[in-house]
Structure formats: C-alpha cells, structure tokens
Amino acid sequence: MTQPTPTVADVAATLARHYPPDWAADWDQVGLVLGEPEAPVRRVLCVVDCVPETVAEAVDAGVDLIVAHHPLLLRPVSTVAPTTYKGRIIHDLIRAGIALYVAHTNADVADPGVSDALAARLGLRDLRPLRPLAADLAAIGPGSQLGAGRIGVLPTPATLAELVQQAAEALPRTAWGVRAAGDPQRRIYTMAVCGGAGDSYLADATAAGVDAYLTADLRHHPVSEHLAAGGPALLDAAHWATERPWLDELARLLRDTLRVEPVVSDLDTDPWTAHAKEPL
C-alpha cells in the first residue's frame, strides 16, 4: 500500500519532535514561518541561511519546503512589502508555493544536533555537552547529550598547527578558512566545538579543561583576554562552515522518517567572499 505524501504539517511535527521549540533560546524564532499546513511535500531543501540565493536554488530544484537553520524573521518587522529585503524573500517563496521552517538554537542543543555533526567532521569521540541543557528540559529529551557545544577526544593527538590544517581540510571550504590562536606547537588531545557563534562559551571551554576550542565569530579582545588567563587554544572557522555539516544529518532524518527527497544546499552563504595573506 502506497504511503500518503507527507504534508507541511507532517514535516513540521517531525522536526518539532527532534528539535522541540521549547529548547530554543527565549530570543529565538523557530518553527513554521510560512506555508499551508496541508500542502504536500515531496522535496525539501536544507540550508543554513534563507537568502535570495538559496530561495532561487529552491525554485530551481522544485522543492516544496525549505528547512533553514537561521531564522529569516528573527527581529520584528513592520512590513513584508516586496520592496524590502525580507519581504521580497517572503513574496518569492509564496509565489513559488514553497514553505519555510526554521530549527535554530533548538537544533544547536539537540542530541544529535549541530555541534554533533561538527564534532563528527573532526573525528572527535567520547562526546559530552560543553554546556549541558537545564535538567528540567533535558529530562524530556531523547538522550543525555542535550546542551550547547560538544567536548571530545581527538582520534590522534596533534599540535595546534596540525589541527588547524586538519580542520580546514575537514570543514566546507570558505574564503574565511580556519585560523588559530595560541602556541602553534601546543599538543592537543581534547577539544571542544560549537557550531556558529560560540564566544559566549569560552569560560565553559576553560572550565572543562580542554586543550582547544573550535567555533566561529571570535573577537579580538575576548580572545586576547581568554589566552592571557590561560584558556585553551582557539580555532576560529567561518560561521556557515561550522553549521553546514548538520544539513547532512537533517537530510538523513527527513529521508528516513518521512521518505521525502532532501536536497542539501552547498551554496556558501558566508558573507566573507575574499581572503588574502600578507606577503612574507
């Protein structure tokens, strides 16, 4: 017997079970953004950012739904006129009959979630959360690994110089690349990772006693003060590159649970488009 085609509501319900909206930060905006709940879904585009380029990709791919990591409407708007940036995106999606769903910080803390996929790219094992989720929420979760970031053991110890090269090869390529702060010859055995902007977890990485911490969007003064205080070495990668690995896990979830056809976007939506090293 042929199974009925899943609907937007079916996909939203499945995603809400794996990434409960209650796990999202209070400032976040997750869940179904637009789309008719009863509309059928056969193909889904998985993206980090819902931007004009990925919307065009969705139209070209003939998908019925976009699942994005970053919210389109994170901050309040007073108009969705097509003359505005976000309004144009919304009009294009509605005209094409494409629904939009967002899983953001609720996917960050899930098990498995964004940082698990990042840790897997680096081969980390014996994973545990960098900052565990509150006990009252973790109690209703599917596992014991709920929380932001992951801590793990490298498959083979490496110097920081070697590790930054390994990370650059393991992560999706961007103009930003991967840079490191700390003694290049420092030996790294344990490592913390956090997909996306993770400088709010610098103290957690120090308290955990790891040798290195990889995340994105690190800033000059917090990094300088962190190192001066004896914190672990730091690796700073492009924001998009640290979250793109999760899209593969998301695609597997959609394929295995709903039998829809997922399409993973490899379109680099990191805003930095060029990089040059100073001549030696």
UniProtKB/TrEMBL annotation:
One term of GO molecular function: metal ion binding
Keywords for this protein: Metal-binding
Gene Ontology, cellular component aspect: cytoplasm
Superkingdom assignment: Bacteria
InterPro entries in UniProt: DUF34/NIF3, DUF34/NIF3_sf
Residues engaged in binding a divalent metal cation: 69-70, 108, 239, 243
NCBIfam families: YbgI_SA1388
Assembly notes: Homohexamer.
Family from the record: Belongs to the GTP cyclohydrolase I type 2/NIF3 family.
Official protein name in the record: GTP cyclohydrolase 1 type 2 homolog
Organism the protein comes from: Natronosporangium hydrolyticum
